[in-house]
Fold this protein.
Amino acid sequence: MTFSMADKAHQAQIASRQLARLTSSEKNSILNRIAALILHHEDAILAANQLDISAAQQANLASAMVDRLRLDRSALEKIAQAVNEIAGQSDPVGSISKIERRPSGIEVGKMRIPLGVIAMIYESRPNVTIDAAALCLKAGNAVILRGGKEAINSNLALAKCIEQALQEHKINPDAVVVVPDPDRAIMNELMTLNQYVDLIIPRGGEGLIRFVSENSRVPVIQHFKGVCHLYVDDAADINKALNILDNGKAQRVSACNALETMLVHKDIAAEFLPKAAALLKQRQVKVHACEQSLGYFEGATAATDEDWHAEYLALEIAIKIVDDFDAAIAHIDLYSSGHTEVIVSQDYSRAQQFIRSINSAVVMANASSRFSDGGELGLGAEIGISTSKLHAYGPMGVESLTTEKFVVLGDGEVRA
Amino acid sequence: MTFSMADKAHQAQIASRQLARLTSSEKNSILNRIAALILHHEDAILAANQLDISAAQQANLASAMVDRLRLDRSALEKIAQAVNEIAGQSDPVGSISKIERRPSGIEVGKMRIPLGVIAMIYESRPNVTIDAAALCLKAGNAVILRGGKEAINSNLALAKCIEQALQEHKINPDAVVVVPDPDRAIMNELMTLNQYVDLIIPRGGEGLIRFVSENSRVPVIQHFKGVCHLYVDDAADINKALNILDNGKAQRVSACNALETMLVHKDIAAEFLPKAAALLKQRQVKVHACEQSLGYFEGATAATDEDWHAEYLALEIAIKIVDDFDAAIAHIDLYSSGHTEVIVSQDYSRAQQFIRSINSAVVMANASSRFSDGGELGLGAEIGISTSKLHAYGPMGVESLTTEKFVVLGDGEVRA
């Protein structure tokens, strides 16, 4: 029997109704069982993973790519632990924040419910298969997982653990669909199935995300890039600014919450920039500096407009001296990717104005941009980071995989 | 100078930043001034409206269409009053629901902010121009209004009131863009401008909504149709059921929250259906009945699968006898448009199970589907009704035109 994406998506929609009606303890029991089965089936999973690794090596994939694919006992333990942690989080489904009585006599509330069917389109990391399935199941959603072809054997082996856990709990197995054929045509078809699929979350490179968001008829939550700004105000505590610069730029350069641009108030530049230069030199960070700040940095290159747009994801940073607070806001308004922006200032009004004025997904005063992460912000596990404002903005946890319906309780009322 | 949609959308995005930073009283003052100017410029608006009416009559438009276009003093008073009511509603922007301290020491909250730039694509009613602009401004958004060509003179005359109010308050006039040329090509271009526009809300016939949602790269909130179900349980209070049927089907047949299908438990059919038949006969409602119920209704036709999908928007109803509660749920799962569903039952568990199980945008126990409306549910004025689950589900008020950003307050914390 050939695989039909439309058919499977329809079946997933039917299965989603059963999931939406499960209690929290039923869902948690499934999740805990998935975690146990991942460890129980270690040998089969690692053997399947070995097939992917060998194929990747034969195809001469870059070693970083091969590393991303690789699973071992310790990786499986981490994956299983993450699933148990998701089981331990609170369940948003079914909660009603408040019920109000209306003049007509009816009582009106909003109840949180699952979105329905969520499709994940992702690249090579096999752990996404389990992470995404666990988060979607926790929120009562069916999920369609379309991973990269490099990880297909690993993904199918992991999917067997999910399938077994669902079966043991008498859940319709179409609640979690792992697309067995990572063909482009199937992905393209998936993006047209808006009658069955409620949301697509692409995870991977900018090319993949752009392709999905430009071609999908199903709503897409997108995260293009993080061009995070640090603004060092003239009222900044210089030690805080240095720590936040160091942590933001050098701790993990490949993260989307790493710093890419630093704006410095002109009145603090002479005191702050030499210290910043020493720090960046020690951390081997290449500097792209504006004309006024160029002299502070040995070996720096002159920043161009491209640098203000750049997400380096490397030990590089763009630095600009600004005349005042408003100039910093104007620069961020122009170049922000909507991800995370930070002010360092001891001035109360300035910090408050920054927090209010900048409408990026995460706005911070006196804290490292590296905190812009689901776990650090208190959401638990993260299914993605949205830089578009609709539905969810910023790091997305389980609650972002739900919506709210209106509940009306009457006693025979009709409309006048 | 020719009109450039891309350019104007970009200018609207720039203007949106100023709007996002206004206080509630500044926004309310603009709204109250718009209301006053609509009455002040009555003559000019009615003269412009007369141009549209004459053109429509010359083009032999149906008289219902011409009526939808027509403005008079009383219509303008209602429009102005609606704007003042929107000004009087509470402002969601800037509110933070709670701030929590994280283990790292940072404090994390979520602050409500405007979406940015909202585009409305609508058909002939000129009051939408003011309603939509007022709701978008209240939430701090810039708005692009693309109305139908039949109402273009009326829309431009109303837009002048908005322009004057913005100017008097020193607001960038691109905060409200009325597209002067309702050409299809301009609408098509608008739908590609996802770098500037955050949300498109189409209002009008199903054809328009489908066209926009299938072709837009900007996120769309769609409301296709309302196939609202009434389920009369065997534990129903028959008088409540009759009142809710009467109100739901006959009060306003053209509304999307009118009833289209009634499901009746087989054990109450013999008692309830003769009374329902008398009521529907009195109201001149045409009945499409299932095989088992056909005998109860004089002049009824046999229901086909098409009837279970139908949004009649007329004095017609589809009626089906179901074996039990589960069969009612299964029918709704299959045919629901995700709008509004009602159970009439005095059985506590049955009502609760219905409320939990049905994930339409509005789910009711013992109340008329006609309450499924922004005003009745307590949202104030309504900008649309979403039957897709992302971002907003059901009637949308001012809060649906906002999103939330994360706010992080630190004192120099960095990530470990």
